């Protein structure tokens, strides 16, 4: 007997209540396989496609040269500005390729990085109308906020010296057969009237979680978000760990310590929508409202007051898939909890249903 060719309806065997939705399942499965085929043909497979963070944003070569790439097809000019070039808008030009990707290489100087670690840097662009706009790089790994100056985040170039980079000591524990998940928000994990830290969570909360018998932690509000009261569900910077709680190395230590206790760590992922912030988010990044998102009303979530991703765009898929892999590779998260899936699946976004 010939093997059944997968068509997306196998899940009905597990849940017969899905029987009326077989046609929809087949349609979604076909779209997924079409995308995988396209990625295989144009990008060399999902493995390469999901490593966008090794191509975009800031990446440092072994000799200290810094390569910066940014997708911004609507921009007519682009330059890097920052502390490193005294914010001169013409000093560090970028070159645009046929796919709308801007690129610049900053050679090391006498063995030193051209952009110092933890210094401020942005991309400045010109739109077709002649307007100059300054933006935080979409693939940034570190942003900080000084409320005494402005609620708008600053982007910083994060590449600490090797001796300051966290070195993982423990392998991830085996996947639990039965998950007992402790949902946690680092910032409110202390009785003190202040925002708690990664260090505090590692020292105080992890032993308690272990003692209570949990074998998994689901961390909320890790991706950087300007609006703290959103509980992390209005993400500005998808590759940046929230600086409210400490530095990236502190989060890595938290995860590594959890692994040493036999606890897996899950990341609460928000790919269902994004903050509508312009100055420190993805919205209107290159002057258009439809770079990462749908244009017009289709790109807005009326209840959440946020922007909606265009999952049918090649570069948006690269961004989001690479985002997942980045958190697994760079921070060693073990898995994800996806927020707002109803909004991702349905045109009505779950509103009024």
User: Kindly, what is the distance between the CA atoms of the first and last residues, rounded to a whole number of angstroms?
Assistant: 43 Å
Residue stretches low in confidence (pLDDT < 50, at least 5 long) are: none
Looking across the biggest beta sheet, what order are the strands in? Answer: 1-2-6-5
Q: Which radius of gyration do the C-alpha atoms yield?
A: 22 Å
User: CATH H-level name of the largest domain... which superfamily?
Assistant: Glycosidases
| Mean pLDDT rating | 96
CATH class of the largest domain: Alpha Beta
Q: Could you name the CATH topology of the largest domain? A: TIM Barrel
Report the β-strand fraction as a percent range: 15-25%
- Mind describing the biggest β-sheet? 4 strands, antiparallel
In DSSP terms, counting alpha (H) and pi (I) runs of 4 or more, how many helices?
7
**Helix coverage percent of residues?**
10-25%
Rough outline: globular
Per CATH, which architecture of the largest domain? Alpha-Beta Barrel
* Protein structure class: alpha+beta
User: What is the tally of beta strands?
Assistant: 18
Secondary-structure map:
Layout: H1 11-14, H2 22-43, H3 46-49, E1 57-60, E2 66-71, E3 77-82, E4 92-93, E5 95-96, E6 101-106, E7 121-126, E8 132-135, E9 143-144, E10 154-155, E11 181-185, H4 198-211, E12 216-220, E13 223-224, E14 237-241, H5 248-260, E15 264-269, E16 300-301, E17 306-307, H6 314-330, E18 335-338, H7 341-345
Parallel strand pairs: 11-12, 12-15, 15-18
Antiparallel strand pairs: 1-2, 2-6, 3-4, 3-7, 5-6, 7-8, 9-10, 13-14, 16-17
Helix pairs in contact: 4-5
């Amino acid at each position: 007997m010939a093997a059944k060719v997968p068509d997306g309806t196998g899940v009905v065997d597990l849940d017969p209540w899905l029987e009326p939705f077989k046609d929809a399942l087949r349609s979604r499965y076909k779209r997924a396989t079409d995308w995988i085929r396209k990625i295989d043909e144009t990008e060399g497979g999902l493995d390469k496609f999901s490593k966008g963070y090794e191509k975009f944003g800031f990446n440092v070569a072994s000799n200290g040269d810094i390569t910066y790439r940014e997708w911004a097809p609507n921009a007519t000019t682009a330059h890097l500005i920052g502390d490193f070039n005294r914010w001169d808008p013409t000093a560090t030009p970028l070159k645009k390729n046929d796919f709308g990707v801007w690129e610049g290489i900053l050679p090391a100087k006498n063995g030193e990085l051209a952009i110092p670690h933890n210094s401020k840097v942005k991309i400045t662009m010109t739109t077709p109308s002649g307007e100059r706009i300054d933006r935080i790089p979409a693939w940034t790994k570190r942003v900080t906020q000084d409320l005494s100056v402005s609620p708008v985040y600053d982007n910083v170039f994060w590449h600490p010296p090797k001796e300051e980079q966290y070195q993982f000591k423990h392998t991830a524990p085996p996947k639990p057969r039965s998950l007992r998940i402790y949902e946690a928000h680092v910032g409110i994990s202390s009785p003190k009237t202040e925002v708690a830290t990664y260090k505090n969570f590692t020292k105080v909360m992890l032993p308690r979680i272990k003692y209570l018998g949990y074998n998994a932690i689901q961390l909320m509000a890790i991706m950087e978000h300007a609006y703290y009261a959103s509980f992390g569900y209005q993400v500005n910077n998808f590759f940046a760990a929230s600086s409210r709680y400490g530095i990236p190395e502190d989060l890595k230590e938290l995860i590594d310590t959890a692994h040493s206790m036999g606890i897996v760590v899950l990341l609460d992922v928000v790919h269902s929508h994004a903050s509508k912030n312009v100055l420190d988010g993805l919205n209107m990044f290159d002057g258009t409202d439809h770079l990462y998102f749908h244009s017009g009303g289709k790109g807005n979530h009326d209840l959440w007051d946020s922007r909606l991703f265009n999952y049918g765009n090649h570069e948006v898929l690269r961004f989001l898939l690479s985002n997942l892999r980045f958190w697994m590779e760079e921070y060693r998260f073990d898995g994800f909890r996806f927020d707002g899936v109803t909004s991702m699946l349905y045109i009505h976004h779950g509103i009024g249903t």
